[in-house]
Amino acid sequence: DAGITQSPRHKVTETGTPVTLRCHQTENHRYMYWYRQDPGHGLRLIHYSYGVKDTDKGEVSDGYSVSRSKTEDFLLTLESATSSQTSVYFCAIHEGQQNYGYTFGSGTRLTVV
Amino acid sequence: AQKITQTQPGMFVQEKEAVTLDCTYDTSDPSYGLFWYKQPSSGEMIFLIYQGSYDQQNATEGRYSLNFQKARKSANLVISASQLGDSAMYFCAMREALNNAGNMLTFGGGTRLMVKP
């Protein structure tokens, strides 16, 4: 009953290849987010979505694109992966009420070699 | 400038003792929220506690309490009676409004807590 799942959990890819990470929710939450986690930086927002086909950039969006064609799915694409994109990627969902915690997926560990 | 600052990269605490993890924040928005998350070695992010900027009382959730000092812009997490399972990374985060709609979380760099038996 996770409510939010990420796939794949681990991926190794070569520099210059495209990569797509998937976030799937069963909670029907409006808001979905992609974060990356790097040592010393905590989590930083890449892109977010506030509805189907409604997305916007976050703090570290360069080199990433997203799509949300259905409420339940939020895709993060690295068009041409670089070594600087080696990171742990977290998807999060939020219902919208201010005092609710954001629910995070289990993370995807991406290594670009 | 960092909006969320956690000045303790790592801390040790003796089992069964209390520990305070520091968090300071910066915002000009009168309406904001502060969150604490726990990240054990398995990697998942676990929501612990929330404090709204207009809340009159400090938030508490079981062994977790938030020492909210609005004038000092600090939101320290207090864990009472530490347990070995409390060993983890702890992140302070602040809810900020987004341009289009909704909110996002801005995170501090985290504090690694290690509980000694």
Can you lay out the helices and strands and say which pair or pack?
The complex is a heterodimer of chains A (113) and B (117).
Chain A: E1 4-7, E2 10-13, E3 19-25, E4 31-38, E5 42-51, E6 54-57, E7 64-70, E8 73-78, E9 87-94, E10 103-104, E11 108-112
Parallel strand pairs in A: 2-11
Antiparallel strand pairs in A: 1-3, 3-8, 4-5, 4-9, 5-6, 7-8, 9-10, 9-11
Chain B: E1 4-5, E2 10-14, E3 19-21, E4 24-25, E5 33-39, E6 46-52, E7 60-61, E8 64-69, E9 74-79, E10 88-97, E11 103-107, E12 111-116
Parallel strand pairs in B: 2-12
Antiparallel strand pairs in B: 1-4, 3-9, 5-6, 5-10, 7-8, 8-9, 10-11, 10-12
Brief write-up:
Chain A is built from no helices and eleven strands.
Task: Assign the structural class of chain A, choosing from mainly alpha, mainly beta, alpha/beta, alpha+beta, or little secondary structure.
Answer: mainly beta
- Name the shape of chain A in a single word: globular
Overall pLDDT metric of chain B: 92
Query: Which oligomeric state applies?
Result: heterodimer
Main sheet summary of chain B: 6 strands, mixed
What does this structure look like?
Chain A is an all-beta fold. Chain A has strands spanning 4-7, 10-13, 19-25, 31-38, 42-51, 54-57, 64-70, 73-78, 87-94, 103-104, 108-112. In chain A, strands 2, 4, 5, 6, 9, 10 and 11 form a seven-stranded mixed β-sheet that branches. Chain A has a four-stranded antiparallel β-sheet with strand order 1-3-8-7, with no helix packed on it. Chain A is globular. The mean pLDDT of chain A is 92. Chain B has no helices and twelve strands. Chain B is mainly beta. In chain B, the strands form three sheets. In chain B, strands 2, 5, 6, 10, 11 and 12 form a six-stranded mixed β-sheet that branches. At the A-B interface, strand 4, strand 5, strand 9 and strand 10 of A face strand 5, strand 6, strand 10 and strand 11 of B.
